[in-house]
Every structure is written in C-alpha cells, then in structure tokens.
Amino acid sequence: MMADPLKRRQTILTRLVLVCAAIVFIAPLIVAALTSLKSPAEITRVLSLPTDLWWQNYAAAFDRMGRSFFNSIAITVPAVAFSILIGAVAGYPLAYMRGAGGKAIYFLLLTGMLVPFQIVQIPLFFMIQGLGLYDTVPGMWLVHTAYGIPFCTFFMRNFFASVPRSMYEAAQIEGCGPARYFWKLLLPASTSGLSALAIIQTRAIWNDLLFAITITSSDNARPVTVSIAGYASSLQVEYGPLMAGTLVSILPVMAAFLLFQKAFVRGLLGGAGK
Amino acid sequence: MSLIPRSRTARAHILFLAVPILLFGAFYIYPIAASVRLSLHDWNGFSPDQRFVGLRNYAALWGQPRFINAVLNNLAWVAFMLTVPTGIGLALAAILDRGIRGETMFRIIFFLPFTIPAVSVGAIWRWMYEPSNGLLTTTLELVGLGGLAQNWLGDPDIVTFALMGAVAWWTTGFAFLVFFAGLRNIPEECIEAARIEGGSDWQIFWKVSFPLLWPSTIIVLGISAIDAMRLFDVIWATTKGGPAYASEVLAVQMYDLAFGRFQMGRASAVAVSLLVLSAVVIMPYIWYMTRRVQDAEVE
C-alpha cells in the first residue's frame, strides 16, 4: 500500500516521457504535411494551420515528379520479387548443406553485406552501359537483384534453417527430389518469411538513391528518390511542392509497413535471432 | 540417413547456387577488383588511356585535410549510430514495455520515420533546419531561446551534429521495434522470479531482461554499423557534403570525385579506403554471425 503514490508518480512520469518522445517523432511529419498545403505567402509561418488548402503544391509536385513516381513502382515491384526469389534459391542449399564448402560459400556471400557500394560504383556504371541497360528500368531490376543477394540469402537461409527438418526427411522418404521439395513444399510453407523479406526489400529498393543516380539519367527510369534529391538540393527550394512530393513518396512504404508490421518483426527475429 | 543418393542432392545444391554465385561474382567480385586496379591509375573516365601511377592516388589522399576530415566523419558516424539511436530505441522500448495505455499508437509513431526514404528525410529536415523559418528556430524563439538558434546546416562546426539529429529521428524506430519485440519474447517467468527475489525494476532490466535481449542487440548493432559505413543518401540529399566539405563522409567524397570531377582513379582510392575501413569495423560481426549459425546447428 505504501508504494502506491510512488507507483502513481512513476506512471505519470513514464507517460510524460513517452508523450514528449512521440511529439518529437511526429512533429516533423505534421509540419511537412501542413507545409504541403500552404500557399507561398503562408509558408514561413511554420506553426500555423493553412487558411486555405493549397492543393496547387501537389499539382506542381506531380508535374515535376509524377513520372518518376511511376518509375519507382515499375522498378520496385519486380525487383522485390526477383531479389527474394534469388535469396530463397541461394538460402535453400546453404541451409541444408553440411561441411566446409557450404560454410565457405555462406561466409563469402555474407561478406557482401559489409561492402560499401562506392567500391562497385564506377565499374558498375560502365558495366551497365556495356550491357545496354543504362537508364532503363530492367537495368534497375538487375542491380537491385544482384546487390540484394547477401542480405536476402542471409535472411532466407536462417528462415529455412528454422523450418522443421522432419518435413525434409519425410519428403525424402516419399522419394521427393531436392528441387521438387523446394518448389512444392518448402516455398509454400515459407510465406511468413518471404513476406517479411518482401517488406524489407520494398523499403530498401523504393528508398534507394545511390544506384539510381549511378545508372539512370532521365525520366526514362529515374525513380522518385532522385527527383526529390534534385528538387531538395536546388538553390531556390520551393518547400510547398517539395513537401507535397516528399509526402507522396513516403506513403507506399509506410502503408506496407503499417499493414505488415507483425510479419516484419516476426521475420526479423525469427530469421536472425535464436 | 538419406535414401536419396548423396550425389543427386549435391548436384541439385550446386545448381541452385549457380545463379546467385554468378551474380555475386559479376556484381561484387569483378567490380571490386576493377576498382582496386583503377585506384592505381589516373583516368578521367573518357580517354582511352589509363596512366599507371602506383600508390600515388593514396599518397595524395592521405595528405589532404579534406580526406582526413571525411575519414573522421565516418568514424564519428559509426560511434554515433552504435550508441544514440540504439540507446534511445532501447530506452523507449523498455519504457513502453511496462504496459502503458495507447501502446499501439506509441509503437506506430516511434516506428514511422524509419519507413521514410533517406532523401525524404533529407528534404523534411532541410525544412526543419531552415535557419529563419524552420521548425527548430521557430520553436526556440517561441520558448524564448531564440539566441540558441543557429544556421544549422550552414555552419561547418554544427552541420554534422544537425545531420545526426535527423538520422536519429529516422533510424531510432528500427532499434526500438527490434528491442520491443525482443522484450516481448522474454518469458514472463524470468521477470516474475526476479521480482520475487526482490529486485527493483532497474536491476531486473539490466540483470535479467538486457542479457536475454542479446539476439535483438546483436541485430541492431550489426545493422547500425553497416548503415553507418554505407551512409550516403541523407547527406547527399541534405547538404551534398557541404558547407566546404564539412559534412562529407567517404561515400559522398567518392561520388563527387568520380561523377563531379571525373577523377576516376582518385575516387577509386577513396572507395578502397572506405572498403578497408568497413571491413575492419564489420568483419568481426559477419564472422560472429557465421560462427553462431554453426554453433546453433551443432546443438
């Protein structure tokens, strides 16, 4: 009983800390949203609400970034599918192989995670030009699939290792070959891992700037991140349209995470922990 | 004991690994080798002849304050990423884990910034840091601390700290979510047992919960270190490394030298230096992760 007032005070204190933190986390997004609806005359009054909703900012952003937004979709959707497929294809044998060979290959592929992409940037630029894929959407698919290999392999290998081995043994007794086992049994049983990886890859690919500025140069293939970076670093920044475009660029991945947050956490801990 | 001939399984395994290994060779190993070679040459990217200069690109870099500054910035970013977003994320997760009303809402709010593209983080924070009308300056003036307002992104002494603030806002959600999920995975009995022993909340957290969080901790630290070495987008979208190269990291410098000044050899030398730095920082982690997987299977 004696601890009660103390406990109450503690609860109030924790709530206070949480609310303050929440304000700090959400304020930039709210200010950006308000700014995107303000006319140029109002924009300098950061904390006020817009008197009229100035949708022209969104029209202006669409003029400058609309095409690149659709490029982002055209790049991200297939590239995510390819990269998780490659990760599964590589992760499967590595999860089942015994002996030094498998270990060495796994280590080699994992070292890819520590490679800063600057070390491949210049040769990649010339390679992609040589392949005739410079400034094309398929070029971006190829690059994202290839550079996703280390993480996707790591993730899928660990996921497959957590799938009960009895399934594999039962399939073997039934006379099911290793390839058939992978396509018919293991992949369909792995949807939770695959979807968690899909969310992680969607974020990584949609948000990428470095590869995009290296191997795209025009509205042919340029994703929305490049448009925003160009817009944000121009000398006379118009913050209204910039914030409008920024908010639209945020929405797809944010929505995906909010919808699949549980799968993401489970996949991350199940795939890499334990 | 396998009923299928070993060779058939082994053949299938090799077939499965063929495409990933080929892609890895073409997109990692070949370009890395090409960059190392290029770093020993002088080349503008167009002319047919590349002049061999030995280690002169490296020697030139190490004599430049601009290069040293970028290396120091990279190290500062590693130290920052390993501690600040990780620490705040852990603290928020521990506080929220006490069972507070509105938990879902707080969880979503803390996590939201992490889903945003780095360039959008840059764009938003350029506006927050706008020296006369930005949110930060306006708020400081509102509470009567206008004197503390700075030219956040324009002052070489402050710019890296300002960028770190933006990145903390961006990445804390990741650490928070992983720690939060980890805390939820800890069996209730462990905490109860410690409470019966008479431990205070503070003791229980550090003596019981935190050690059991190790799988979460190792993920967060590893990913933070990798992100710190790869950091490029936020700086590029916010300051392009300025003012006067003050906020540059090696990745930004490399891009400027290669695609801004067409000094491909010099740029490659920067990239190789970054790779070496990154290997020193992150290799122990990769080694640990591979080893741990083997250990887990031996059990």
TrEMBL record, chain B:
Pfam families linked: BPD_transp_1
Keyword Membrane: yes
Subcellular location: Cell membrane
Residues of the ABC transmembrane type-1 domain: 71-287
Main location: membrane
Keywords, in A-Z order: Cell membrane, Membrane, Transmembrane, Transmembrane helix, Transport
InterPro entries with a match to the protein in the record: ABC_transporter_permease, MetI-like, MetI-like_sf
Organism annotation: Psychromarinibacter sediminicola
GO biological process: transmembrane transport
Lineage per the UniProt record: Bacteria, Pseudomonadati, Pseudomonadota, Alphaproteobacteria, Rhodobacterales
Membrane topology qualifier: Multi-pass membrane protein
Domain of life: Bacteria
Keyword tRNA-binding: no
GO cellular component, one term: plasma membrane
Coiled-coil regions listed: none
Annotated protein name in UniProt: Sugar ABC transporter permease
